[in-house]
């Protein structure tokens, strides 16, 4: 079985991507004294005491070569100077559709075996490593090193800067996701429940729920203040104050991660003004993106700007500097400004430097997932937020900061939840490019 061939503009990009990978892997393996690496795609897990499996996505380093997120129990052998060998688990099966590959030019770059068994291929003589969700016993049986840290770190670094092919895939994932966001907004304004909004998103973005890169966050009213809200109410609320939608798309393994917030017909006017303020803040932060920018400093700049916004909108009665120093801005926005994006939503190597040395986040910002300087080819998210989260704000009442917050206004906004505006950006030699289409 085949699917339509890859669009012609993308095919040469993918072949150049594979050539670059072959060279990069060859250099890393040679430097570490390895004759090759065996990548395992992974396998879905069964629910406890059940025969149903959870949704599955292949190991990131396997997808880096194949772009196939749903190939389970498959193996890829990479050796310097030799064609990659791809063993795909495709048993005879009348219960399920066997695995298959799309009819695309990239397949010609591999030696491909469609196998009934899921056993790893026999390794030739030499020193090899095996990476992925494999046991120590399996690695020992292969005579290979299992997930050696030096190799994993070096290959993670290979994914930090994206190729032209990867950026094209990320751009297409964003295009599909934004189509879903537009439809979700219409469903919200039409009076839909969270479940209706999610179904509208899936339909317009042309994907099934198990194919999502992460579970959509569809938060109406106060639910928008739960950062990873995980439910979909099937009954619409009586009053429609707000919708926070954080939803993505996966294209050829690559993930879009977009968030939008909209005021509803029953919103307090102050909430709409805050959405405008966060949107303007996000645009200013995006304008600052360029090679050499310290992302930690950009995150701190967000907090200074949040202090200014809170003061301008009357939520605080202190200076912006005092709002930051007293922890007020972090109570209103406890998460990081953004993260790396690629084959994983929170992509690898965000908290290490180019040599693999740890770059821990500041003590004041433990949730910050990206702590390194920006480089050409990186893809990052930019997602400033502002939320009314009672459990974070309540302790401020008992401190000096309590006098500096307009608590009646906070109460008015409490059932609006929160605001987050998130785009996906690529760092270019001269600055940045926005992969997220305009609404």
TrEMBL record:
Q: Which Gene3D superfamilies does its entry note?
A: Creatinase/methionine aminopeptidase superfamily (3.90.230.10), Creatinase/prolidase N-terminal domain (3.40.350.10)
Q: Which SUPFAM superfamilies match?
A: Creatinase/aminopeptidase
**PROSITE patterns xrefs:** PROLINE_PEPTIDASE
Entry superkingdom: Bacteria
Cofactor comment text: Binds 2 manganese ions per subunit.
All copies of domain Xaa-Pro dipeptidase N-terminal, residue ranges: 16-155
Q: Which reaction does it catalyse?
A: Xaa-L-Pro dipeptide + H2O = an L-alpha-amino acid + L-proline
GO MF terms on file? proline dipeptidase activity
The similarity comment for this entry is: Belongs to the peptidase M24B family. Bacterial-type prolidase subfamily.
| Annotated positions binding Mn(2+) 2 | 246, 257, 422
Keywords assigned? Dipeptidase, Hydrolase, Manganese, Metal-binding, Metalloprotease, Protease
Q: What does this protein do?
A: Splits dipeptides with a prolyl residue in the C-terminal position.
Q: Which residues bind Mn(2+) 1?
A: 257, 339, 383, 422
Limits of the Peptidase M24 domain: 169-428
This chain's protein is named Xaa-Pro dipeptidase
Give any Pfam family that matches: Peptidase_M24
Q: EC number(s) for this protein?
A: 3.4.13.9
Q: Which cofactor does it need?
A: Mn(2+)
Q: Which InterPro entries match?
A: Creatin/AminoP/Spt16_N (IPR029149), Creatinase/aminopeptidase-like (IPR036005), PepQ_N (IPR048819), Pept_M24 (IPR000994), Peptidase_M24B_aminopep-P_CS (IPR001131), X-Pro_dipept-like (IPR052433), X_Pro_dipept (IPR022846)
């Amino acid at each position: 079985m085949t699917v339509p061939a890859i669009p012609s503009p993308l095919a040469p990009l993918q072949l150049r991507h594979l050539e670059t990978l072959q060279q990069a892997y060859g250099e890393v393996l040679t430097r570490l004294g390895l004759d090759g690496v065996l990548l395992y795609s992974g396998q879905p897990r069964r629910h406890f005491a059940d025969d149903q499996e959870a949704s599955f996505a292949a190991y990131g380093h396997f997808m880096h070569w194949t772009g196939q997120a749903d190939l389970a129990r498959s193996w890829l052998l990479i050796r310097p100077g030799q064609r990659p060998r791809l063993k795909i688990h495709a048993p005879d099966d009348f219960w399920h559709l066997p695995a298959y590959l799309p009819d695309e030019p990239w397949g010609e770059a591999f030696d491909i075996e469609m196998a009934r068994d899921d056993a790893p291929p026999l390794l030739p003589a030499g020193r090899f490593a095996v990476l992925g969700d494999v046991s120590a016993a399996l690695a020992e049986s292969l005579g290979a090193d299992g997930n050696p840290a030096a190799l994993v770190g070096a290959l993670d670094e290979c994914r930090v800067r994206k190729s032209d092919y990867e950026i094209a895939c990320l751009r297409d994932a964003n295009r599909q996701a934004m189509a879903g966001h537009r439809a979700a907004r219409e469903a919200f304004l039409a009076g839909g429940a969270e479940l209706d909004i999610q179904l509208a998103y899936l339909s317009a973005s042309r994907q099934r729920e198990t194919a999502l890169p992460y579970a959509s966050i569809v938060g109406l009213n106060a639910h928008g203040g739960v950062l990873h809200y995980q439910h979909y109410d099937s009954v619409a609320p009586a009053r429609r104050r707000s919708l926070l939608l954080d939803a993505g798309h996966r294209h050829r393994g690559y993930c879009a991660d977009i968030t939008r917030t909209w005021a509803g017909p029953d919103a307090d006017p102050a909430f709409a003004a805050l959405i405008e303020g966060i949107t303007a803040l996000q645009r200013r932060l995006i304008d600052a993106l360029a090679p050499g920018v310290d992302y930690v400093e950009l995150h701190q700049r967000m907090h200074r700007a949040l202090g200014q916004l809170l003061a301008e909108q009357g939520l605080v009665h202190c200076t912006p500097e005092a709002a930051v120093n007293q922890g007020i801005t972090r109570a209103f926005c406890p998460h990081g400004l953004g993260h790396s994006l690629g084959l994983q939503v929170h992509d690898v190597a965000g908290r290490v430097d180019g040599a693999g040395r740890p770059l821990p986040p500041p003590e004041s910002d433990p949730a910050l997932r990206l702590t390194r300087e920006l480089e050409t080819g990186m893809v990052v998210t930019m997602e400033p937020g502002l939320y009314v989260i009672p459990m974070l704000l309540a302790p401020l009442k008992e401190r000096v900061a309590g006098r500096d917050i307009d608590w009646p206004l906070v109460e008015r906004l409490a059932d609006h939840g929160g605001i987050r505006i998130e785009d996906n950006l690529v760092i270019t030699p001269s600055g940045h490019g926005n992969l997220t289409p305009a609404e």
